[in-house]
Write a structure and sequence with these properties.
The complex is a heterodimer. By secondary structure, chain A is mainly β. Chain A is built from no helices and 10 strands. Chain A is globular, with a radius of gyration of 13 Å. Chain B is mainly β. Helix content of chain B is 0%, strand content 53%. Chain B has no helices and 11 strands. In chain B, strands 2, 4, 5, 6, 9, 10 and 11 form a 7-stranded mixed sheet that branches. The chains are: A mainly beta, B mainly beta. Chains A and B meet through β5 and β9 of A and β5 and β10 of B.
Chain lengths: 108, 116
């Protein structure tokens, strides 16, 4: 099983700032089968990024994904008020598909 | 628009049972594998069970094998999770998720609380 470890656990930033979230895999994800989801309280999680760097339909271009192998990054270039939420990574290369524990982006 | 709407969660005593439902709309339900994924308080999501398009070959995480049963009704565009012998460790928000090349759509979740 591939274990995904996200850091930091919480990111305290102000609107307009840049957010950089990390996801480290315990084994190489050779096909870049890594996604990022946004989760707000009481709402369905929303797919942001798939295949490590492709934006899902309707996702603003302030969201970008990068990385390969065991190190992946989600960057939010300029935080909007609606971006303060929980973010988790998800690998779909190897069954069982697994998830990180999440990074909470909160208003400073 | 793809929508997944879960229902059936609630408070149940240890050893009890519960049946979750998920109603799908906005896509061809019978063309997709479907999954249940749960998220315990303060933790990341955990895959629970998968079912393929025609309902054969369900798969489960080891911790629920023999206790949970995933099923589907393609005519009703619905997914189900029958849960029995529930323990406190099963307390979580349970999500229905569409399993395409990845989990691309989720429901809003239904909370299951196992407590005496």
């Amino acid at each position: 099983e591939i274990v995904l470890t996200q850091s930091p656990g919480t990111l305290s930033l102000s609107p307009g700032e840049r957010a950089t979230l990390s996801c480290r895999a315990s084994h190489t994800i050779s096909s870049n089968s890594l996604a990022w989801h946004q989760q707000k309280r009481g709402q369905a999680p929303r797919l942001l990024i798939y295949d490590a760097s492709s934006r899902a339909t309707g996702i603003p271009d302030r969201f970008s994904g990068s990385g390969s192998g065991t190190e992946f990054t989600l960057t939010i270039s300029r935080l909007e008020p609606e971006d303060f939420a929980l973010y988790f990574c998800h690998q779909y290369e190897t069954s069982p598909w697994t998830f990180g524990q999440g990074t909470k982006v909160e208003i400073k | 628009e793809v929508q997944l709407v879960e229902s059936g969660g609630g408070l149940v005593q240890p050893g009890g049972s519960l049946r979750l439902s998920c109603e799908a709309s906005g896509f061809s339900f019978s063309d997709f594998w479907m999954s249940w994924v749960r998220q315990a308080p303060g933790k990341g999501p955990e895959w629970v069970a998968n079912i393929n398009q025609d309902g054969s070959g369900p798969y489960y995480v080891d911790s629920v094998k023999g206790r949970f049963t995933i099923s589907r009704d393609n005519a009703r565009k619905s997914l189900y999770l029958q849960m029995s012998s529930l323990g406190v460790e099963d307390t979580a928000v349970y999500y229905c998720a569409r399993r395409g090349n990845l989990y691309d759509y989720w429901g809003q979740g239904t909370l299951v609380t196992v407590s005496s």
